[in-house]
Amino acid sequence: MNVLLASLPFYPFVSFLLLIFFGKRLSWRLAATISVSSMAISALVSAILLFELSVTKNQVMTANLWHWFELSYAMGSSDVNVRFYLDGLSAVMISVVTGVGFLIHLFAAIYMKSDVNFSRFMAYMNLFIVAMLILVLADNLVLLYLGWEGVGLCSFLLIGFWYQEQSNVLAARKAFIVTRIGDTSMAIGLLLLFNSFGQLNIEAVTLLAEQANSLSAGTNAESADNIYWIALLLLGGAVGKSAQLPLQTWLPDAMAGPTPVSALIHAATMVTAGVYLIARMHGIFLLAPEVMNYVAWLGALTLLLAGIAALAQTDIKRVLAYSTMSQIGYMMLALGAGAWTAGVFHLMTHAFFKALLFLTAGAVIYALHHQQNLFKMGGLLKKLPFESSLFIIGLICLMALPGTSGFFSKEAIIAQLWSSDTAGPMLWWCAILGALLTSIYSCRLFFLGFLGKARFNENVQLKKSSLLRTSLIILALLSLFGGLIPLDLTLVFSSVMNLPLAQLTEPTWLHTVAIITPFIGMVFSWFYFKSYRISHLAGKEHILQPNNGRFVVFCRQGLGFDGLYKKLFIMPYQWLAQINKNDIFDQIIMLNAWYVGLWHDALVLVQNGSLRWYLAAFGLAIMLLLGVSLL
Amino acid sequence: MTSIPLFHVLILSSLLFVIGFIGVVARKNTLFMLMSLEVMLNAVGVAFIGAGSVWQQADGQVMFILILTLAAAEVAVGLALLIRMQKKYRSLDIDALNQMKG
């Protein structure tokens, strides 16, 4: 039992409790100190845990907190404990969650300083960290599901944080409902898993899956079918949480929340929970190669779709949202191809640079008096040199230029696609196309926002806070050099090694193409987006307008998925609700009441208050009784 | 002295009872209802006397005296109620007292 491990989620939890109960009475200074210092302690504890983990023998640490309940079924029962399990994979996650989380909390404490509900905001952020830590540390899938729902709840609360505006509330509701669809699928998957394995303990399930894998010849068709469905249903949960096709529509709208929320939840941590889930359950997925193929294809399609949608956005945060989606698509692609370590590695580096991008975008938006429209920015490189240079760092990581962290992780993914059993050359080309799109939309974003002439009238307002800058600089350093962090997950993904080696030979030009692609995109956009870049030369700043062609608007709205879902699901549902306004099932229940009422009316007639009537009835009844008894 | 068969006594008694009962049910005037009640009580009394003489038991006559006392008490209470009723409703119509309907 490791006390440090057991206590990890409780630091932010205590802070959450303090802030939610005494929030109104705390000054900004006190509330900020409580929430940020709790995160600092968590980050410190995670660092110590990482060190301890690296010196333990089999790189696994556990902490059993308490017995939760017992699940029993026909063939026996299994215990569900509140037990934390730390291995290489969850260690990566806790360091991202607490490390990046700490930096974002630091940023948020200053960014949200003037908000009336500051302490409520920080309380939700802390609660989110608690849920996320439970999710990644959980030793069994029930506890994981608790954390899974917890982060969903916090996401809902934080997207709708400024609930006075209706659009924010609608966005929060949409995010909640859409992810709930995935969660339902995951819950069914868990039940099915328990039914076929009799276990929900992750270690035990992985072990059983490995055994099944080694005697794959002996498994019967029924259990293979079961595993196929389990993997598919778990994938459904991951797809909902990670905003992949077809449940991706909530993420762009989720940008309605405050920017630190977008950075923490909708870029760095929560949306990667789906990736974590698949990586965690890789034992199951290895038994269902078809599902791994689906994972790869879903990732690739999302990657391309989000890249195209990002090209047409006018809102700086929505560009970043679509970019997040496409980067998670990369992770999914990696997982589907069996490149587990590369996927998790990209998860980590993406958390660094996307948090950096969001936070600098937040700083820029604040400086421009909450202006998010790219077409009303421009020329920020000169006005905000510090933020702009950090943004550039974020963008070059996103584009995966050689030497940055994004380069290491993305190349690691792309390199494994060609020869993978469950991926292949087609998906490799998708990934390359995605990389091209990434660099084009990154350049477009940069040209529109930071080059050219300023297209706004107000002066920029700056938050000169050394703490804020420190957090941004640390994130920038992590983004640049995070690729050098050695990530060895061979112990976690040991079963992967059993896969037969691929027969496909790789052409020699693969790596060259992969490295050159971002540069091609940059050169292309340098010429194609010339008007964005040098609007001041031609005096075109007045006519720099977003292209409103039908196709561009279609792309801007996320390639029509919202409209499709509205037609497919929302409108039929509303139609049903309309025709069933009086609730036909309720009417059936109300028959009982009607029956009782009928008897009431009948008996009221009898009780008419007339004495002679009663007497007559009395006499009649006696005569009847006598008659019956005589007969 | 020829004894009257019990059967005849019982026929008389039931006739009286039915007449009384019909009186109670059919009359609207409360005074006549009370009088019909007396008829019903007397019908029961005739049945007791007849049974007592057939079995040569004094109990029948004791019972009749009891009924007589009961009838006297009942008439006393009933007439008092009648006076109150007349004062309050200015009528003796029993159907005026139907506020207790459901």
Explain this structure.
The complex is a heterodimer of chains A (631) and B (102). Chain A is mainly alpha-helical and 631 residues long. Chain A folds into three domains: 1-287, no CATH class; 297-496 and 506-546, no CATH class; 582-630. Chain A has helices at residues 3-7, 10-22, 28-55, 88-111, 118-137, 141-159, 166-197, 202-214, 221-241, 250-253, 259-268, 273-280, 282-287, 289-311, 316-336, 340-367, 380-383, 385-399, 405-417, 425-450, 466-481, 510-528, 530-533, 550-556, 561-579, 584-606, 611-630; strands at residues 61-73, 76-86. In chain A, strands 1-2 form a two-stranded antiparallel ribbon. In chain A, helix 5 (118-137) packs antiparallel against helix 6 (141-159), helix 15 packs across helix 19 and helix 20 runs parallel beside helix 22. The longest helix of chain A is centred in the N-terminal third of the chain and has 32 residues, at 166-197. Chain A is globular. The mean pLDDT of chain A is 85. Chain B has helices at residues 6-26, 30-54, 59-89. Chain B is built from three helices and no strands. The mean pLDDT of chain B is 90. The relative contact order of chain B is 0.13. Chain B is mainly alpha-helical. Chain B has a domain at 30-90: Helix Hairpins. The longest helix of chain B has 31 residues, at 59-89. At the A-B interface, helix 26 and helix 27 of A face helix 1 of B.
Task: For this entry, give a set of tags.
heterodimer, A: 631 residues, mainly alpha, 3 domains, two-stranded antiparallel ribbon, 27 helices, B: 102 residues, Helix Hairpins, 3 helices
